[in-house]
Design brief:
By secondary structure, this protein is mainly α. Helix content is 68%, strand content 0%. Helix 1 runs antiparallel to helix 2, helix 3 packs antiparallel against helix 5 and helix 3 crosses helix 13.
């Protein structure tokens, strides 16, 4: 696996944490100068493209049944997500004032656990489609993609990308032709094609596409510049165009060169390993940071330092979650095997 993917995962997670830290600060001090620099939601788009990329390069030439694929994704995604969702549900029930965007609502909780798109009851406008853990809306897309991608493993490799595009595209068209509904809005969003872009980039990578180091550096730099500029500007265009394309460019250029695991960047690789934990737990940390704002901001006398502190605390909590929960639970579940029936003996290359 390309070590640079872990570096990008780390950057993506930190972008999302920064984005939500600024949103928290806006509630505490709308006049803080740094709140004018709201960006970072683009970290999600990097995750989406990366997900499609990784799914392709890890399955295109390795024997794997549909059941095995789904089980690997479930044991990777579900344990931590269910844990934080149930924790948030308990907080919403016992001390609801802590999490402003969370309400204890049984149907909503069940839909969240099942990765079913659902209107978040805490939204006063009744439009936000998000689970109990609001950032978990991305996982609803992830699990949807895994469901369809896994089904396409039944298709020979040479036709698999076409099958994925046809399946996702077909659902997208149906959703946009269907009457207005939560499901139609969710599955009819163009953001789902960022996963497809990642799959295609994974195909290029497996084909051995290689680019010189100076061109890679230029491409990654321009990609991040476009990503952050478009993220900050908030153009009234589909997210796939404004953010998805730069995200895909970053993944393309960064994986078009083979680089060693640089010792000086090991900390970034570790953050990449823990990016899922950082992503899911940071809302709890930021909620806690909001409560201690009056105490901390006095000595600091700097909203900027407070944002840095929130990001550092979110990273520390995410690392703790990774080593204390995600790693041991993942290690245990990886030892649990599915029944032998239905497993493929070789990849579908014919």
């Amino acid at each position: 696996m390309c070590v640079q993917l872990q570096y990008i995962r780390a950057i993506a997670a930190l972008l999302v944490v920064y984005f939500h830290a600024i949103l928290q600060l806006e509630k505490l001090n709308p006049d803080a100068w740094i709140t004018d620099y709201l960006f970072g939601k683009s970290g999600v788009d990097l995750f989406f493209v990366l997900s499609g990329f990784v799914m392709w390069i890890t399955t295109s030439d390795k024997p794997q049944s549909v059941a095995d694929f789904w089980w690997k994704r479930v044991r990777r995604v579900v344990p931590l997500y269910w844990a934080v969702t149930l924790a948030a549900a308990m907080v919403a029930l016992v001390v609801p004032q802590i999490l402003k965007s969370t309400q204890f609502d049984v149907p909503h909780i069940l839909a969240s656990l099942a990765f079913v798109p659902w209107l978040n009851p805490s939204d006063p406008e009744g439009k936000m489609i998000a689970p109990l853990i609001v950032p978990g809306w991305t996982l609803n897309y992830e699990m949807y993609f895994y469901l369809l991608f896994g089904a396409c493993l039944l298709v020979p490799v040479r036709h698999r990308i076409a099958a994925i595009m046809a399946l996702i595209g077909g659902v997208f068209v149906i959703a946009n032709l269907a009457p207005e509904s939560t499901a139609a809005r969710f599955y009819g969003d163009t953001v789902i094609f960022e996963f497809v872009a990642g799959v295609i980039l994974g195909h290029f990578y497996k084909a051995g596409v290689s680019i010189s180091a100076p061109l890679v550096a230029l491409g990654v730099m321009l990609g991040f510049s476009a990503l952050l500029f478009n993220d900050y500007s908030g153009f009234d265009l589909p997210r796939l165009i404004t953010i998805g394309i730069p995200a895909a460019a970053i993944i393309f250029f960064s994986t078009a060169i083979r680089i060693p695991d640089l010792k000086a960047w090991r900390w970034l690789r570790v953050l990449g390993d823990a990016s899922y934990s950082i992503y899911l737990t940071h809302i709890f940390t930021l909620a806690g940071s909001r409560m201690i704002y009056p105490v901390v901001i006095g000595p600091l006398q700097s909203d900027t330092l407070f944002v840095v502190l929130m990001m550092a605390m979110s990273t520390a909590v995410g690392l703790a979650s990774y080593y204390l929960f995600e790693v041991p639970v993942g290690r245990y579940l990886s030892s649990v095997s599915l029944p032998r029936f239905g497993r493929s003996a070789k990849p579908h290359n014919a």
